[in-house]
Fold each of these.
Amino acid sequence: MKTAPADRPNIIFIVADDLGYADLGCYGGRAPVSPVLDALAERGIRFDQGYANSPVCSPTRFALMTVRYQYHLRGAAEEPINSKSRGSAELGLPADCPTLPSRLRAAGYRTALVGKWHLGYPPTFGPLKSGYDEFFGPMSGGVDYFTHCDTGGTHDLWQSSEPVTEDGYLTDLFSRKAVDFIERAAPAADATPFFLSLHYTAPHWPWETRDDQDMAMSQELRANLFHHGGGNIHAYRKMIHHMDEGIGWIVDALKKKGLLDNTLIVFTSDNGGERFSDNWPLVGGKLDLTEGGIRVPWIAHWPAVIAAGRQSAQQCLTMDWSATMLDAAGILPGGANGASSAIDESETPIDPDFPLDGVSLLAVLRGTEPPFRRRMHWRMNHRGQRALRDGDWKYLRVDGHDYLFNLAEDERERANRATHQPLLLDAMRADWEAWNVTMPEIPADASVLPGYSAKDMPQR
């Protein structure tokens, strides 16, 4: 029988933007920028082998929303969706595609997105068309933190389906809007649990902190929001700290409303770090299928279920967390190992035309199951990249070169074992190619927009 509403958790899915693997204190960070997130990890569980579905933002968000490999959808072939997609009726998340919020809403959850959408532009696409009851944030990938204008200088801040103007530092606006949603949803939380997506733009460029509220930098950035000539690690770390403070406001709001114990809070990044990020000991970053581009922080906090102080080596992807949330809500037709769950699927069925690729981690959170085998596949149009992680081993192709790494021994991917173990390389390459034929081909007109190149800064 379906899980009773009173037993279902409220869910908050917090996604940072371009956060590096080692930026947070609990992941070895070199500066004390994340006391709130560090405390959530200490009182919950931290995953050391967690991955993003893509090393670039919008494809990961397609996977997060659909609980499927992003390659199923044309819009996710854009690396990433950019302002040239404005007005397109093809490059976005189709309104008829079931999503994490639409499934949760059908099961009785109140849903809201605060923060970055980046899954296509109105009028064809938008959060309210894909399962959210409420929305506050930008439609595009990056905006100025004070003017709230995108890379083309277009004002890009929305309240539900209408443009809105609000003064303030964007990270703080998101945090306050999230608190407001919790306070409004709290009275009904026992009977009507809520799902809040909180998708920060921090610490994505431009490199602005609260200290830049005189708007001088915003005026300078009107010509180039990529901020090639600015930023530093100090500003970057402040941006992370501003986000961490806001998450603290949210935790405090949950405490005041008596909701913290049965609220599942999940925190991650949409991809690996960018220019000023700390990815140690990993190599590479955003847009790379080396570990620095796809391995990201994963923290889960749920006192009613997760014992404090846990650390997990479970390998997992963004879409697995979406599946976990469906499982926690009692609407997933399979558990962590694919077994049928004890729910009435007739009430909230998974559409057979949109089978899930994500795998639930609920048993891992509960501590009732050890880590299980999770093969994970990636591909990128950029530099013809492909990757497969299977246990300790990783198969990687970049610029036509094939590599084989034992990540248990060599997380920096410096010791190529391809010539030493050719049979394993052949087997993993065949596995990747067999998986790839189950996905649509990358369209010839799919675009790649790195944002910067060797002319802007030296290669990694």
Note: The mean pLDDT is 93.
Amino acid sequence: MKSRSSSALDHLNLVAKLADLKEDHYRTLLTLSAMTELLMDKGILTPDELERKIASLDSELDELIVGALHPMP
């Protein structure tokens, strides 16, 4: 019986941690969105520049992942 209650408590703790992570993720995205909009509103960054940078970083990350999964002999 003790392991069952321990398992339920572990599950509850995991759910609570997930909820905290979701809140942190939401706050991070909200902050990033606000900063991006402010940079564009001030003319420091254009939507095209942002899209190009996103594509560039995404491509670099893909290359790193592929390189890590398939290292050269």
Note: The mean pLDDT is 92.
Amino acid sequence: MLNKFRLLTPGPTPLPERVRLVLARDMIHHRKSEFKEIMGQVQQSLQTLFGTSGTVLPLSCSGTGAMTAAVYNLFAPGQKVLVIDGGKFSQRWSEIALSRGLEVETIPVPWGQAVRPEAVEAALKADPSIAGVLIQLSETSTGVLHPVEAVARITRESQALLVVDGISAVGLSPCPMDAWGVDCLLTGSQKGLMLPPGLALLALSVRAWACAEKQTPGCFYFNLVKERENVLKGQTCFTSPVGLILGLKESLDMLLENGLEPVYAKQWSLTMLTRAGLSAMGLELFAKEDFAWGITSVLLPDGVDGTKVLRLAQEKHGVCMAGGQDHYKGRMARIGHMGWVDWADVAAGLYALNDSLRAVGGYSGSRDYLERGMAAYRTALEGKPGAPLSQVYG
């Protein structure tokens, strides 16, 4: 009873009471008129969220399922794709592409850095046969935000489709699909959309649909052309995740009731709060320049066991955060501040991390990290989302 539990991981994320109440409602049938009407309403809201006039497909799977569906419907075995390899989840693009029988070329990017658009341009010019560019908007394992808008300007001038994993970015930072020229945008339910895991969402551009219509899908379950036919009738191909669709309607109503700009302003401000507070503690921010708006990654001091830090933060303070992946396991903390998270949750996370770090032998000499974090938060709220706050922290 001392502390309420706070979930500050990069997914799953906390569920608003409004969504939880909808999830508790009685079941309805997925082939009847009531569900079809809800699907129509959800479709309109999803088009606003994705920034597209095209159909957004709900898929009964995790985000990895949507990644698989994109690769298996847009590309044929033997084709070549270019993967931006800068983290654990970009590596998943390569694994999925290889399982489809594709030839994979990569642009290696150091973890913690974003790809340079000119590197993508050079690769496409050197090999015009490349059929697709697979990239993360937000690389969840590192907290990096890749310059998808700039990359899209390049892919639009080539035959390569731009396929974007927006799982930890959609509903958190801007990615207007049609305006930017993204060919495929996908996301999952358990991050910015404030839902339990189990639902993925995917949209294609006109030219991506043209490719999908010519392909023989490599998977019986993931057939995007058939899914589109059913969605236009207020249905899904197979048994619909009814509860998640009902919850999605409620979460979209919440996200869109005042427009997306206040959502982005909130997310940017929480990012500034987190980064300023961590910097004030003397910790090293992992993504120094191109950073995501829903997750902040921070390196822990040498000699400090990050696993112990995060375990203590949860056991003593009730704050659950994520650690590093792969070769950064035990060396990094990843703080999620997405979806149904506010400034008080983030402040609690900073306090829990600071206290736990000191308890395991780490050093933090800052006495005003919360004050400096809140100063950055206030400044960010008064400005434009994405505007740098160099005057608040270095």
Note: The chain has a mean pLDDT of 96.
